[in-house]
Amino acid sequence: MSGIWVVLEEREGRIGRISWEAVSAAQQLGAQLNLAVSMVLPGAQTEALAAESASKAPGRLVRLEHALLAPYTSDGFSSAVEQFLKAEQPDYIIFPHTYQVRDYAPALAARMGQVLIGDVTGIGSGPVFTRQLMQGRLSGEYRHSGSGTCFLSVQSGAFRADQVQAGSATVETFTPTLEASKIRTRPGQPFRAAAQTVDLGAAQFIVSVGRGIKEAENLPLVQELAAALGAELAASRPICDNGWLPIERQVGSSGQTVAPRLYLAVGISGAIQHLVGMKGSQCVVAINKDPDAPIFEVADYGIVADLFEVIPPLTEAIKAAKQ
Amino acid sequence: MKIIVAIKQVPERDAHLRIDPAGKWIEESDLQWSLNESDAYALEEALQLKEKHGGEVIVVSAGPERVGATIREALAKGADRAIHIDSDDLGQRDALGVARLLAAAIKPEGADLVLTGLQSDDLGYGQTGVILAELLDLPHASLILHVEKNDSTITVKRELEEGWFQSIDMPLPAALTIQSGGNKLRYATLMGIKRAKTKETSRVAASELGSGPTPVATLERISVPQKQKTTQILSGTPKEAAAALVEKLKFEARVL
Question: Which residues does residue A150 pair with via DSSP β-bridges, in sequence order?
């Protein structure tokens, strides 16, 4: 067995922060288990990127290099990483929990008789791996059993990229055997649905609305609150899924990431996909009738009540305070 | 087109959750249950494809007796028949264990398309569909919002992060995991509910589909998450709470 390996993810020529968070998690686990941490970078033409990445952390960095690894396909990545794992026999393989990883890592794990413990937010002694259940209302501790490589993926923002132990890695290359005929999907170029006209990322004040609003006809209630605050109106995914607000106002993993001075969440339960998009906010206020809603876990101030009773007097009070 | 949709029954969204005395799972006795949200979108996509291209929609679901209610809901919405994998020990199976059960039930059907929701609202693994593709040796794509059928291939719209999308072409048969929001969900009509009663649900015991649970990833303990912040809850009448909040925002958080 060869310790802990982290799969770095290249996107638009860069290694994103979440990959370094995965390295940070790996170093934490490595310290606990006294295992070496190494990195593997699947892709095509990654020489410059590998050299740059190797200057940021110690250990080994293996370029898993093949022309058929760009663009990403599940078949190509599964096969390449499988060959690499069979050669290296890691104790652990840690992925950043990205859409790409969700697309192939579970299949790869199954191919090797393993199960990905996905979306991990904490590593405890044992080791046990913490992840959320029931849309963040509960948390669960998982343990890997049996022999073979343990597959993990770590949630965005759960580990600190700025705490990666610095160092300089040696760069090696591993060339998997891939055949174009075995890659069954033909991916197209990424595109955006429409030009973004709302930059929520720059907003200082955001009023964000969720399922609790019940019907599109009730939206003026929060629109008035947003107007009183001078805030941008945003929403959680279900509101945009229903077409009540345009998708460009969606906050969360599939929408925009925001960090306003004030984030006022109205009728939002706070599923993790939403929280990852707003937990950098300076001050979070949650209004929800369910005291167990996970949004309260990240809120500075909370009102546990029916939003239809709270919003009108709140809008009035804000107007009065601003005069 | 013969389309299989794997659906899951999960606790209702707003259900009050209590941890069982062993600390390993939640108390199920007093829970309300419903069809997992993204599975409802997978079913909707299947029904729309059938309406356009003809064929058959078969739902498959694993779980105890109570799962029958969710299966009937899917039949009432328009699925043609169902397979109920009778299992009281789903909780002891990991994602691979459950996918193996589903794959064993799905394989003999020889479907053109296998759909699942993106992830379950309870365990949230988001893996079943992707593992199914592996076990059934099908090409797959995940986070799909739209499916367009061509002659012997499909073109799907895949969601990427931060508002980006991508089209992917792939041959049939294939497996897809469906993201919520791609379609408008239908309700079951009275006629549909009536018709559902005459539709076939074949029941198969989990034990007939292969070996028992030998999990690789085990859930050892569940708990209420630790708070990341100390939340000040503002109480009183709605008016009092609203006034207290504005005070706090102005003088304590200093954001107004």
Answer: A92
